[in-house]
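Please, structure for the following, as tokens.
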Amino acid sequence: MKLSYSLTPGDSHTYEVEIDQLIEMTAEGDAAALGDEEDLPGALSINLTGTTTFTYAVAEGPEPGTYAVTITGNFTDLDMAGTIDGASVEETEIPDFTELDPIDVTVIVDEQGNIIPSDDEFGDLFSGGLGAFEDLTGSGSTPGRFIGPPFPDDEVSVGDTWTETIELPGMLTDEAVTTEITSEVTGTDTIDGNDVFVIDTRSVTGMVEFDLAELLLGFFLAFAPDEGSAEEQAELDALAESLRFLIAIDETVSDMTTWFDAEAGQAVQADFSSLTRFVMDLNMPDDETGEMIGFVLDMTLDQDVTYRLVDSDGA
């Protein structure tokens, strides 16, 4: 049969969300290079676990045949365990970036579940701190995601496989960031007395890598005098030689199993897992002294999330 989502403006769906998220990080150097006042630890391993609820509110999308799905929820009841610089999390101050902010995100989809990318998928990289980590990993890693795979226009049966490819503009490069989503109907099941399709989906996003040093150098040069002294020119040359702002996200793979109620047109359960690695390598002038300071951060986010539909309200 042909699979599609039943998206009606005004409808609201509530999912129970069970989260098991592991953040591991190592950092070397001076975190002041980030422009962040927070004193980051050198080594960190934190496990966040617990259950919460997300609400999915459906509204009209910006184009005919599209829908704006606003996902909201918070993580006030999550448990936290782990170590920071060798001490347990109960014995030390928790860095702000390890806390999960409330979810409040809107995704644009069509009836087949195709995500319509935004114009600014990577968010604001210049806000300072580590907020860019979540922005760069995008909706592929955040728990606040549309539940279910994109469906083909054709009818499908058990054993059928299909692939969807999404391309987003790269950062400071002509190379697009490509995500390939492959799904297969692996069988059928029964949940709460309703027959459902079981669909396995693997999403692979290619490596993202770019260097903001050239852009930052242009910013510094904009404030340099038009006819500087030989000493000032030598300082600019030295800055250009040593300035570094490298950001890389390894190829990201996520897997999801969806239990889809074709008659209701919605996912009644989904198990999602992903692993993301983010590396930042900086060498920047200190705001106060002007001396070059270096900082290298290596972070991984490994998570398992289960979504269970608990309530659906019509308009």
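DSSP finds three helices and 14 strands in the chain. The helical segments are 131-137, 213-222, 230-242.
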